[in-house]
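Hey,
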Amino acid sequence: MSEHREPELTMRVLVYSDDVNVRNAVRLALGRRPAPELPRVEILDCATEPAVIAAMDGGGIDVAVLDGEAVPAGGMGICRQLKDEIYRCPPILVLIGRIQDGWLATWSRADAVVTHPVDPIATADAVAALMRQRLARTIA
């Protein structure tokens, strides 16, 4: 007799940066799951603004991590656009260059910010908090 197992819940995390090293640093920070009680993460890498917009418009993204230092399109401008255009936009973490740029992240309507270089613990903690927020919104 085989044991029936429910499929494991996963959450999709979009990671945007024009720099592959930043995307890899975020991927490593999150690992398979950023906190033990949370679902596993499936990461969608995006290197361009059109890829981010298409992925977010397509739905199924639970949390986004956007590099505020990306060029030519910075994550803060993309964040503001997504918050303006997507009903019930998923929570967004913006990576900022300097703590003094926090006011810009507020303008972008980011749900959380972490400074460059990517700090694995701070990034995992911030994404975990946003995942919990998204799960609470889904259940409610």
